Amino acid sequence: MIKSKKLFYLFLGLLLLNLVLWSIIIERVFFKEKIVFLDIGQGDSEIIINKGGNILIDAGSKKVVEKIEKELPLFEKTIDIFILSHPDRDHFLGIFDILERYKIRAIILKDLSKSDSLYHQFLEEIKKRKILVLVPKESLKIHWLKKDNVLVFSTEKLKQKSTSQHSLIALYQFKNFNILFTGDIDQYLEKQLIPILQKIVKKIDILKVAHHGSKNSSSKEFLEAFKPLYAVIETGFNNYGHPHQEAIDRLKGVGSFIFRTDLDGSIVFLEKNNQLIYFLKKDKI
Questions:
Q1: How many domains are there within the chain?
Q2: pLDDT tens, position by position, 223-258
Q3: DSSP of 115-174, one letter per residue?
């Protein structure tokens, strides 16, 4: 009887493992294009994976490497472009481990001058590795496939209340969908971005909510201008009150479906039959 139970549990374990492996194979074979908002704790990191290559936006935790390894094929060891929205540690802390495991072809940065010893160490590392570095002062367009483009905007020349809120903004035009990555911009910068973005897009399908859901971001005017269908808040345990209820209420006010990495895990978006589909990966970090 005991032996039969052991065999049953062994069979059940193998069956579950088999299902997990097949789900990974199906995802990677049939859905070669995806956008993943990585669950790394209190920090930002997103990866765009498509037939043209891989784009990583921010790397705010040492957990980024293990998360990326779960998204990329086993023998894929190249990040074609790394976009750093701004040089705060919760946006670049994991890049050192990534540099050890992956080849990065090009890096897009906000600036080269921040007085942070760890950031200077990062700059020295990419200089040593002879990685191409681009520092856009206004906007930069990356032709990624025939239809898909990445637009990177600098907020440096916009009016500012605090230089700490400046970020590179990335707009990924994925088939018929627009995905906006906002870094840590505040409401003051959001409002200035409205007319700039409206010249390019009429709607935002997926919004990476600025500054981990801070009450000083996600302004009513910005959200009403684009009415994002999905809003992703990347956050973990913190002492800042992120995400703030005011920001959540404003997102709900425009009808956004809200995801939180601290509650939902990594959020994966795919396209099928001209529709966005998503699933959640709630593995512990």
A1: 2
A2: 999 999 999 999 999 999 999 999 999 999 999 999
A3: --HHHHHHHHHHHHTT-EEE--SSEEEEE-SSS-EEEEEE-TTS--S-GGG--EEEEEEE
